[in-house]
Each structure stands twice: as C-alpha cells, then as structure tokens.
Amino acid sequence: MLKALLAALFSLSASATALAGTVRVEVRTPSGEPVANAVVTVSGPASSSLTPPRKLVIEQKNLQFYPFVLVAPRGASVAFPNLDQTRHHVYSFSAAGPFELKLYGSGETRSVRFDKVGTVAVGCNIHDQMSAFIRVTDAPWATVTDAAGVAIIPDVEPGQRIIEVWHPHQRGSQEATLERNVTVRDRAGITQSFELAIRKPLDIHSPY
Amino acid sequence: MFWRLRTRLTLLYGGLFGLVLACIAAFLYPLVSAEALKSARGQLEATSKAFERIETLQISQLRENARISATDFGFRSAVAMAPSDPVTARTALANLHRRIGADIVYLVLPDGAVVSETTAIGLSRELLDQLMSGEVEQGALVLDRSAYRAVATPVLAPDFIGSLLVGARLDDAQMRSLASLTAIPIEAELLVRKGGDWMLTARSSEKTSGDDASVSADEAIVEDRLIASMDGNDIRLQLSFSMEAALAPMRSLLGILLGTGLVGLAILGIAAWFLARSITRPLAALEAATRRIEDGDYSPVRVESRDEVGRLASSFNMMVNAIEERTRTITYQALHDRETDLPNREHFERTLHEAAVETGHIYVAAIGIDRYSQIRDAIGYHNAAALVTALGGRLRGHDALASPARLSGAILGIAFAARSEAEATLWLGETLRALEMPVEVASQSIDIIAKAGFARLSEPGASGHNAIDRACIALDQVRKSHRKVATFDSEVYGDPVANLSLMGDMLRALARGDIYLAHQPKLNLRTGEFEGTEALVRWPHAERGMIRPDVFVPMAEETGRIRELTEWVLAQAVKDQATLAAAGLPMRVSVNISGRLLGDPWFEQMVDRLAGKGLDALCFEITETAVMNDPERAMTQLRHFADRGIPISIDDYGAGLSSLAYLKMMPARELKIDRGLLAGLAANARDSFLLRSTIDLGHGLGMKVVAEGVEDNATLAILQGLGCDMAQGYLISRPVTLPDLIRFLKSDLPRADLKLRASS
User: Fold this and answer.
1) Whole-structure pTM over 0.80, yes or no?
2) CB contact, 8 Å: B156 with chain A?
3) Please, what CATH class does the domain formed by A20-47+139-208 belong to?
4) Does domain A51-138 have CATH number 3.30.365.10?
C-alpha cells in the first residue's frame, strides 16, 4: 500500500514533465537471495529536488513498526499512529533526527518533521524488539525494494543519473551506499542489479 | 641358640606373623594409595566442575547486569551521545561500574572509539574489531597480566550504537574460594600463556603470585582446565594436590598397621615362648632320661600331661622297663653257662676282679674232669651237663671266695684264699678228694677223676696272662706231668708270644739266607766209605743265638710255615748235593720231611715240580708216626715219591709207637734206628737183642739199616757186629757246614781212622 502510494506520488511529477524512463533495480545478497527493504535512490539534476510528500506514516501495530524502512524527502513529517492497545514510547538518538515521543496511548498519533538528510533509527523504549528506519534524502526519486528485492522507479527524467542502494543491516559502514552511474533515456527502462551483503540484525535478547 | 626347639618355634611363629603382616601391608599399600590418589583426583575433578559452574553463574550474572544496563534508556542516550558528549558517556560508565560492581567496564563505539573509566589498558585489535561490530562475546580476557571473566553486550537504540564490555577479575581470592570448596587442601592456580611459557596470574596459596608455578606430575596430582577466552589468549586453571598430602592418610594407616603388628608380634612371641616351653620341657625331661639310661639308670620319667608328649613319656617308661628286663636277661645269659646255669668265665673274671681289690692272697684254680668227653659220650650231653652242675654245687660247698664257674666244657674255676702255695696245694688236694666222691646222675653213680692247676691271682711278673689263663695252663701242665695238683710253671710254659714272632723272623731269615743246612755224613760200616749225608736245618738268630730245630720246626708245623721251610730245605739240599757232586763227592742228601706234609696235596705238587731238578738225588726221611694220622693217603703219597725215584727212609724207628703193619706197607729203602735203642747198648744184653732184631727186621724188609747217635767206638763195634749197614753220629762227625763237610770228606785222616776202626 505504501509502495502504491509512493508510485502514485512520483507518477504525478513524472506526468508533469511528460518525458521519462523507468529504472528497475534488483538487490540480492552475494549468495543470490533477494534483499527486501533496501532503499534505492536515483539522483536528479542539481537543480531538481524531490517533491515534498503529502503524508508519511510509520504505524505501531502488533508491537512492531510498519513499514520497517521508510524513505522520506528532507523536510517531510512522519506520522507515528499508535494502533496497538498498549502505549508506546517512540524515540531516536540518530544524529539525523533525534526525537522522543513519550508514552502515548492507543489511537493517538504523533508527528515528527525531519529536516536533515540521513538515517533515523527509530525504536520504542518500552518494547526493545520494535525497530524502524527512516531514510531522509534529497534525491528526487526513491523507493524501497519489495520482498523479491526489486524496486521499480518510473518517470525518471532522462539523463545521467546516480543510483544508490542502502540497507539498515548492510555490512560495513552504516552510512555508506552502493552507487552506480547510469544513463536514463526517454521512454526506456533500465534494469540494474546490486549485490549487498546483509548481516543479521543485532538482538540484545539473544540467548547469549 | 637355634638348636633349641623353643627358640625355633618362637622364631617360626614370629616370622610367620611378620610375614603375614608384611603381605597385608604389601597388599594394602597399592590399594590404599590408589584409593587415596583416586579420591584426590575425584576431588580435583569435582572442583574443576565447580569452577565451570561458578563460571557459568558469574557470566550469566555479568550478562544480566550488562544487559540491563545496555537497555537502560538514559544509558543508551548517553551512549548515543558519546561521540559528541564523551564526558557524559564516561560518567555513565563509571556509574554502571559502581552499580554492578564489575572490575572492568568498557564501551566500544561502532567507529572503534573506546570509552572506559576503570582501566587505561587498551583492548586488543581483534577484540576491538569484534566489539565494534557489536557481536556478543563472552569468556576470559587477559589485560596486563591479569585474567578476567568478561561479557560483551551490544547497546541497541534500537540500532547498534556500541558494545558494552564488563568483567570480573579472576584473582587470588577467587582461587582461594575455589580451593576452599574441597575437603582436601588443594592448590588452585590460574595460568596465562605468554609467548611459549605459562605465567601464573592468580593462586590460592599464600605465596605471592607471579612466579612460574608449573607443577610436575611426580609431586602432585594435577587437573587442568582450559578456559575459553574471548581475546585468543590461552588461559588455564590448574588444580593440584600434592602427592605427599594425598598419600598422608595411607601413611598413617601403614603406621597403625606397623604399630599393631609390632605389638601383636611381641604378644605372639611371648605366647609362642610359653607354648614352646610347655612342649619342650617334657621333651627335655625325656632327653635327660635317655642320658640316664645310657648310664644304666632305668628310673621312669614323671608323666604330667595326658597329651602326645605325656603318652610318649608313658611309652618311653614302658620301653625303659622292657629294656631293663631284657638287659638283665642278656646280662645274666652273658655271665652264665647255658647248660649248667653255673657262672661262666666272664662272670668268674668279674668276681675275681672285685676280689682282687680286697685281698692279695687269692688263688685261682682250674679243676679239670679227666676224660670228660668220654664220660659225655657215655652218659649223654644232658647228663654230662648235670654232672658238671653237681660238681659245681659241691665246689660251692667249700669256702670259695667266688662262686664256682664253668670255664670250659670240662673245667671248673674256683677262687680261694691261702697263705702260701703249699697251703693252696693242700687245700686243693682236699677239695679234689671231696669232688671225686661218686656223683649221682640220672640215678647212676658216676666216678670221676679231677685234677687242678692253680695260680695266684696277682702274681708278680706274670703279666700277659691273667690268673685264669695261668690256672688253665697249670692244669695242662698237671696233666702232661701226670700229677694231681700243681701251680703254674712259667719256665715250662716258655714264651708263646715270642715264639709267635719267631715265625716272622724265620721267613725273613729264609729270605735273607741266614738259615743254612748242616750236614752229618753217614758212614758205610761195611766199606768204610761215606755214602750220604743228613741235611739238618740250622738257624743262627741275630738276637737269640742258635735256635734249635726242635723249637722252631714244631712251631712252623703248628703255624703252617712248614711249607715254606720245607720248600727252602729241598731246594737248598738239591744245591748242596750238586756242590758235593761238583767237588767229586757224589752222594745222596737226606732231608727230614714233616709228618704234617704227608698227605698234603700242595707238598706232592711241589715235589712233582722239583722232581726233574735233582730231587731224585735226595732221600726223604719220614718218621713212622707221621704216617699214622692218615695212613692211607700218606702211603699213597710215599709210593708216589718212591715211584718218582726218591728213596724213602724211616726215621727215628723205635722211638715212639711202632706198627709192623705200617712198616710193612711203607715203600722205604732205609730204616734209621733211633738213638734211644743205642743207649746202654754195651751193658745191656736185652737192648742188644732188641737192636739185632730191629736190624734183622730192616734187612728182612729189604731195607738198609742206619744207626743214629753213634758216640763211642764200642757202640760202633757192636753195630758193625750186628750187621748194621751204616752209622751216623758225633763219633764220626758232628753236623757241619757244607764247606767243612767237603774239607772233612777230602782229608784222608779221619777217613783212614774210621776205616781203620770200621774194619777193626
């Protein structure tokens, strides 16, 4: 549903330009398994910027955050509706956007605006297993891979573009991205494959 | 000491007990020591396991503390702010340190920055890399020679923002508490490998840590446990228990064993000593009794117990009684004559021995019953014995000093006191008269004749013969001299012992050539020629002077040496005959042959052997009585010699018993008249008649007649007148040596003189 939303969002801008191509990105691990929740961004011309989204949401439901990964344009606000029966204490210590939403109850919603580019790791203070990431970006086109590790970005303005791939559990530096220069042509689609090594998420409750 | 049964028994018991103890000790020692070591090893293993349990507990405690801290919101926010606000992070760590009481607390940020309040020591690169990635770690850790038990936990917010490392030091106190878990005093040590060597970092004992403390397996039982480390260092827990301490209980056990053993040994030794003594005491009594029996004391052993030894003593007493009884019987039999039950010679000698001590004037008499064998043959052995018994009884009636004893079959011995020899003779004469009263035996009256020889019991100079011997010899002398009673005559008896040695001297003299033949020529009374000689053996003894043939020849006959003597005489006679012949005096040499040799096959063989060697030039002179022992064999042999060409001459004819029957049978060519027939020849016409008859008898039997012992001219004349063929005697020539004989025969003077006389 979120993807459909995003796709609709980007198609609006694409239709405005009328001239556009489609970028298809497949992300797999070195052993060939599809990588879901990878953030794929395509850079635009220096002048262009991502259209501010209308509304971005990370729900708390069944003691989990949904979606796990959210791409947000800089300056966007993200809503954190609590759909559980329990209270949540949502916070982030990430430099890109630290915030703290102290305990709030079922049916309530809080919103946070992110004005810095970067990764915001979101957790709940009273439920350690709840985790989500907000990737704040300036890129005009961006999306998240589906369960098959595929991200399709339509209506990309032709020209020299940089595709970047990032994942919260990627090995190595947390801020690094996989980058590739590609040329996008009008009414043409390109498909790019990325290999990304993924680690198991750390868990403080592991039996160790 | 060891030949005493008591000592041996005691030592045996003691030795056996000691051996058993030693066996038990030898059996127990490895068992107990193995058990002690096993128990110690078990304790060490248990401690090692306990250490593992403690480790698990401590780690989980550390982990819990770390985890709780790492999830603390405030702490997490401090960690998140660490890059920008390190002071807050550091104080937060210090707070945590105090709160959980850890020895070390480290915070490692994802970019490798390390925040710590507890120690300035840096973590290893490898560990740092792991902590930077937030991986969960636990295990031992070595920091500057000290070992820690540590746990690392990631700090998540909710993403990884750093690793928290907390640890507790493994120090001496920990080792001590570990060591105190066991009942036995063990040593717990923690070792870290630095380079190739193990280095001690903590230990339970009081000694200062830091020394190298590798323990050899010889000195201690060691249990090692490698401790999992998170930083790649080798850490080892070493639990040791000294062998000496492990074996200590066993040593005390052995000590107890030894102690009880020694006490037991002492008790046993004393008990064995008393037991052995109870056994050996009666045995010693028995032993003493056997010694007493040796000395003739047959008193019984006192029997005290009813056991084997007691029964042995009873049997011993019974045996002693039997031996005593038997000894008495044997002694009686040894001292008494079986036939007559009179004391025997042995008994008599003993009695005399005792009597000799009392008084010096004691005489011993041997009383002989004449013709005892004839009486015995007539009345039987049994009755003869009864006769002797009766005579013994009569003698007992006389006041004899010792019981009359039977010295031999027909001789009874008595001892009596007398002041002189004459009194003794008188006393004995009376005794004999009393003894000669007729004796009733088997309701027959028997007359006996008794004679007595006597000797003084301790006669001076009569050594070598005891009184009984002398009395017996005296009896022989009495019988020979046809008297009734006489004492021992040592002069008549001579010296038999010296005579016995004479035979040895004789053989040596024969071998040396001391003995020679003397020759006495025979004169033919018809022709006045010397026709032969009689060879007479002569023995000049170096010490005793000339020994007469009638001394040593009878002795040679008695002892059998007559063979050697005769053989030598024959050989010498043959040589002398040859010498005479060589000197131009061929004549027959006569040799006297002992009657003992007649009938002796040895003699015949010897004669046969010498027959071809000039023996036929000899003449054998044999007395008539010599033939009478075994006439048949003697005659056969004489005939055999005659057949071999050896003339036989009858010697000493008329001296003893003469038998015309034998004279007739003898193949003799010559008859030599005994000198006894010549005595008083000149005066007595009756003798002259007997001589004439004898000469005629010889001539009648075809023999030449030779007269011996011619000492005067008158006799020679008579002999010539009676037709005697030849004469021999001092008148003509004494027996002389061979050279003298030759000289005599060659000189004309004596011969002319004799011829003259002969012819006159």
Assistant:
1) no
2) yes
3) mainly beta
4) no
